[in-house]
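Review box. Two proteins, two foldings.
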Amino acid sequence: MGQEESKPEPGDLIQIYRPFYQHWALYVGDGYIVHLTPNGEVLTSIFNTRAKVKKQLLKVVVGNDKWRVNNKYDRSRKPRPVKEIIRRAEEWIDRVVTYDVVTRNCEHFVTELRYGEGVSDQVSAAPGSCSLHGHSPVPGVGSKAALPLASPEPLELEGHSALCAA
């Protein structure tokens, strides 16, 4: 299951090391994470345009991959209060959101929940380490997005037109 010695606390960002990409989730307590998935599976294609927000056991999502707590933006951004982070995360569970590897990926989603601003430095990293797929469709392009996660309503849900959040 990765690092048993890592003891996540509610509100922590979880970085999961998959072959060729990194997946991000938010720890909500009792062994559970909230994260983006298409159809209950891991995001694996740059062609995914929709993702579902799911609450699942960390150990199930991680499998045999390595993971760690990585609140890497705490030095430059102030995290929201833990209760607010968890409340916001729970509002998104089972919702379908727009997904884009460069501007609205899983790291954007969880950093928006934790900090109030969606950021991902994976898309600006060297080619081969991009967000979810190992290759950025736009190498060297950084991504910083303010995502509307104050409540679930701003999301672009299946069959609805609105702002998107993932």
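Next protein.
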Amino acid sequence: MYGTSCSSRMIQRLLLKCVTRLCAACACRITAAFWLVAHSWALPLCSRSHQACAHCRKMRKRCLQRCLNVETKREKILEARHREIRLKERSRSEQSKEEETKDREGEERAEDLVAYAEKEFYEMVEAEMKKRGKEEKIVKEKNKENSEEEL
């Protein structure tokens, strides 16, 4: 490229070899940075290639550490989400079980209330019939007494 295309190509190849081992997100940044370095230096960069590779190794270690940290954070977040989902499902299933038992108890209570109301109603009806029967007897007796007095 600039009269020293051989040396810049060598450096680019070395850098690209080092960079290709990195993750995709970090590799894009590093290749862009090293491409600028390689193109801005029109001088032969063979003497700097070892420094660049050493720097690249440091960058690789840092990037790998960052990538591992990011991945562990992602895993922790995913595990937390899965735990939350499991807890929600458990609570929903427990709530549905509780609601079913409440519904059953409510139905039993309703049936008990209906039975109690029917029993009470029939007792009241019987009591009223007894009252009326007594009243009718009293009325009949009064009528008999009145009719006997009239005779």
